[in-house]
Amino acid sequence: HETILSTRLSGIIETTTTTSRKLSMAQFSIGVDVGGTNTDAVVLRADQVVCWTKQVTTADVTTGVARAVRAVLGQLRDRDLQGTICRVNIGTTHFVNALVQRRDLVRVAVVRLCGTASRALPPFCDFPSDLKKVVCGSYHLVSGGLQFDGQEISSLDEAELRTCIRTIRGEGVRNVVISGVFAPIAPQRQEEKVAEIFRAEFPDVSLTLSHEVGQIGLLERENAAILNECLKPLCHRTVEAFRQALNALGLTCPFYLTQNDGTLISAEQTLEYPVRTFASGPTNSMRGAAFLSGVADAIVIDIGGTTSDVGCLKGGFPRQASTRVKVGGVSTNFRMPDVLSIGLGGGSIVKQIQGADGKLTVQVGPTSTGYRLVREGLVFGGSTLTATDIAVATGHAQLGDPGHVTGLDQELVRQAVDRIHHMVEEVIDQVKLSGEDQPILLVGGGTILVDEKRNISGASSIQKPQHYQVANAVGAALGQVSGTVDRVVSLAQTSRDEAIGEAKADATQQAVAAGAVESTIEITEVLEVPLAYLPGNATKVTVKAVGLLTDRPTGGGTDLADIIAADTTTWEQQAVQEHDVAPPSDTPPAPPSPQPASHLPTLQETETEIDPATGAWVLSPWDV
Predict the structure, then answer these.
(1) pTM for this model (two decimals)
(2) What are the CA-CA distances from residue 26 to residues 21, 258, 371, 551 (Å)?
(3) Bridge partners of 49?
(4) How do residues 319-338 score in pLDDT, each as one tens digit?
(5) Closest CA to 447 of 618, 304, 599
(6) Closest Cα to residue 278, out of 223, 203, 241?
C-alpha cells in the first residue's frame, strides 16, 4: 500500500498493484448530474460521500461533465486514496434539451397497425407544429391492430408491409416506429412480427416498437415511441462523446445513465431507449435526498438556480405520475416521476409591483438570472436584486460581499422572505396526497433561501441532510438497477397469487439481466388495476423489482493507480473556447457571422435575454 501512488500530481502515476490487491481495495463509484447552472460530481464509497465538486455547466454539456469528473479524480489523488473506480453514472439533460429546443432530431416514419380503426387521428396529429415539421417523415396506416380483448382487428398483410417498407426506403428515412392498436396486450402477435419483416427487408433500419416504451393508450404510446426514435442518432453521438471524455481521463470502467425511475440503465441500453433518461435530474435529487437522510417517505424540495423541483418519495423512490405527461409539448404515457416545478431559485429576480389597491407587493421569480447570477446578483457586484441577495441580507447565507445588500429596505427584505416561504408552502400543499403534515427534505444549492427554523405550513419536520448541495449527483452515483413487468392477465384462468408471483419472478429476472445481484433484489412496487371492459376478470398487473448493481473489481473497473494524470486540458480548452459564455464586456457584440446549415448554436447565440424592468423578452439573432 505504501507504493500504490508514487506520484500524486505529476503526469505519470506508477503502480505496483496486483490482481489480488485489487480485490481487497475499496470500490468507488462516481455520480454526475448535469443541471442548467452547475454540473455536480461526487465519489461514493459504499454509503460514504468521499468528495464532491460543482462545476459550471457548459453549452456542449460533455465538457462540463469531463471537467467535474476530472476535479473529483484530482481530489482522490490528493488524498492518496487507493481503490478501484467501478463505474461512472451520469444524469444528463442532453435528450430532453434537444427535444425542447427542437435540435439534433431526425425524421421518423410511423407504421400504425390499425386496420379500419383510429384513422381519424393519424400519427403526429397532436404534435406542436414546429416539432412536427422537424420529425415527421411520413406515416402509414396499414392492416393489423388488436381489439381490447387481444383479438385481431384485422390480420397483417405482408405484401402491404413490404410495399410500405420500399416507400420508406425511397424517402430516405431509416428511423421507423411500429405502433399497433392495443399492442401492449399481446406484442408478439403483431408488432414483433412486423419488426422481423422490416429487419429482413431493410437491414439498416432503426426501429422502436411502441409497446417497449409506453403503456396502453394509442396516441400517447405512439408519441413516446416517436420521441424515442427521433433522438437515437443524437444518443449514439452523446454516449460516444461521454465514452471518449472518460477515456481521456483514464477511466475505462463501465458507465451508466440514470433513468426516470431512479435506477440505472447501461450505456448500451440507452442507445435504444433515450426517453428513459428524460426526468433523471429531479429523480436523482429525490434518490439522493433519501440516501443522505435515511428517510424513505417524505416530500423533497430541490431548489436550484432557476427553479425548484418538488416531488414525493415513496419507499425511497420517486412517486410515479399516474396520468399522461407532456414532454416538449407532446403527450406521452411512459413512466415518469410525479414532479412539480415552480419558478423559485437562487437566481430568481426580486422586484416590487403595484397591486390593484395601489399597495406595493414583492414578487419573487419566475424570471431568473440563472447561470449569470455570479455576474448580475448584488452580492457579486451586479445590479439585479435576486433571492440570493435576500438570503445574504437576512444572514441565512454567506456569499459574495454582504456589504452590497446592507442598504436594502428592511420591509422589502421581510416581504421577500415571506413570499419565498409562502411559495414553498403552496407547492407542498399541491404535491401532498393527504391533509396530514409531511416530513420535508431540502436539497440543492438554493436551500439557503429557506429558514429551517421557521414554522412552515404542511411540514411536520424540515431536514437539510449533509451534502445537500450535491444530492442530485449522490442520487446518480447510487448503484441500483431495476426490472419492470407491465401486463394484462386473466384471473379467470389463473389465481391472483399465481399471476402476481409470476410477474414478480419475471421482474426479478429482468433486474438480474440488467446486472443486479439477485440476493439484493426487492419488490418495490405491485400495482393491480381491474379492467372492467375486458372479459375473463382481466387485471392489469405492474411489478417493479430493484437490486444493487454487481460491481466486479476485475470486470472492467479502473484502478486509481492506473489512471494516468496526463494533461488532458488541451481538448477541454478548445471546447471551452467554443462553448463557454464570454465574460462581460462593455463593447457591443459583433453581428453573428453566417454559419453553415449544420452549425449547432452556442449558448451565447441561444441565450434568452429578459429585461428585468419590464419582463420583456429581448429577441436575439437566434430567435429571429
Answers:
(1) 0.76
(2) 10, 23, 36, 11
(3) 44
(4) 887 667 888 888 888 777 88
(5) 304
(6) 223
